[in-house]
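Hi there,

I know you've been waiting on this one. I reran it after we fixed the sequence typo, so this is the corrected version. Both the input and the resulting structure follow.
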Amino acid sequence: MSWSETALAALVVVAVGVWLAWVSASRLDRLHRKVAASRIALDAQLVRRASAAVDLASSGLLDPASSVLVADAAYAVVDDAGPVASPEQALAMDGFGAGRERAESALSATLRSALGDADVLADLRSGPPGEQLLATLVATWYRAQLARRFHNEAVAQAQRVRRHWWVRALHLAGRAPSPRTVELDDQMPDAMAGSGPAVRA
């Protein structure tokens, strides 16, 4: 093999390596952007769920103790969520933090306690205001569950790509931190989860 043929082969290998690195870096960048977008969407859905919980708590349709507990738990979520995340915060991909996740889980537990009884749900559905408020809460809760599932799937995809040896060896992730899943209790009460029409509202 002549010197020129060896040089050409080496050049081809380098070119293919550079192309593969560029493809991998582009894919990783798209996955990071997907994680950031899904995090913003999840945040919005969870805030809507908290808002729907506040509307229900302030409607006077729940008993006074449940109204106070639901309102407190929902306001804790809104306070922890704070203002709409800036692009820099969203691109940090660092999940929501333990405080926000605890607040969201506490709201889920409080709502399950207040709405876990089938008789309470039947009373709420007996009139238009309660039926509409409950339908809104169920719909926002269901969308929040879906948004969290999509976000965590996007995080898992990005983490899988970042684990490839060539991504680590070539530092294709740059200084971007590894994305984190959002882990919280978002289980809906069984009696509400079976509300097919309400979920689609």
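Quick highlight: Residues 3-57 form the longest helix (55 residues).

Best,
R. S.
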